[in-house]
Amino acid sequence: MKERSAWKLNGFLALLIAAALLVGSILVLASNAPGEPSPVDVLGFIVMLIGSMIILTSLVVVQPNEAKVVTFFGRYVGTILDAGFWMTIPFSHRKKISLRVRNFNSQKLKVNDAEGNPIEIGAVIVFRVVDTAKASFDVDNYEEFVEIQSETAIRHIATQYAYDTFGDEQAVSLRSNTDEIAEQLMRELQERLDVAGVRVLETRLSHLAYAPEIANAMLQRQQALAIVASRQKVVEGAVGMV
């Protein structure tokens, strides 16, 4: 499915035409008030009345940052993207799709990092719909699709890197390289969400911590590494002075 523009006409002009048809149908009957109306007048009254009713049922209001997906008897005919008051195809179904920027805050996911340590990780995903046809017809529910694919991408990224490198400055870690991790998460997530017509605007890690069962052990490890590093600096300074 690809998004395309639906046929539309200015709604105020269509409303004026409907009012003219309605007034014309009344005048047709009023012109034959003294006697019985002729079959031609009755036919004209019915046609103009039906025409005005059809126009009235085809009017639609589109709010800013909103789209109307138009389907006609099960066939996609286009999308109205321009905000305003419009007339579209009569007897069609119009589904509202929001084009506003949205935030999705994932839950705290418990996964194992590249070294097998259990960690807790969460992220904020900023996205918006850019293709209403894909969002409406290629996936069942694009909002749930974004949530599920976001959590899947977060889990996949978390398993590729260690939580911390413990002094190895060249290695990429989840704690030290948050910008690089966020960019990679954004690229992977965009590949997953292209099918739903969704564009990812930004991704950020909102939570990153060791799981409670190993948090104390990892804290002691970090403290020990810090003590060793500080003593090494003292020794290097003393040797340099000598």
- The quaternary organization reads as single chain
Please state roughly what percent of the residues sit in beta strands, choosing from under 5%, 5-15%, 15-25%, 25-35%, 35-45% or over 45%.
25-35%
* Share of residues in helices: 40-55%
Based on helices, strands and strand pairing, what is the structural class? alpha+beta
The H/E string reads EHHEEEEEEEEHHHEH
Q: pLDDT under 50 segments (min length 5)?
A: none
> How many E-type strands?
10
CA(first)-CA(last) distance:
75 Å
Reported for the largest beta sheet, the result is: 4 strands, antiparallel
Rg computed from alpha carbons, rounded to a whole number of angstroms: 32 Å
Q: Using the alpha-carbon principal axes, give the shape.
A: rod-shaped
Mean pLDDT value: 87
Count of helix runs: 6
3D structure, described in words:
- The protein has 242 residues and is an alpha+beta fold.
- It is built from 6 helices and 10 strands.
- It has helices at residues 11-30, 39-57, 132-137, 142-158, 178-193, 212-241, and strands spanning 9-10, 59-62, 66-72, 75-80, 84-87, 93-98, 102-105, 109-112, 118-129, 198-210.
- Strands 7, 8, 9 and 10 form a 4-stranded antiparallel beta sheet that branches. A 3-stranded antiparallel beta sheet has the order 1-5-2. It has a 3-stranded antiparallel beta sheet with strand order 4-3-6.
- It is rod-shaped.
- The relative contact order is 0.12.
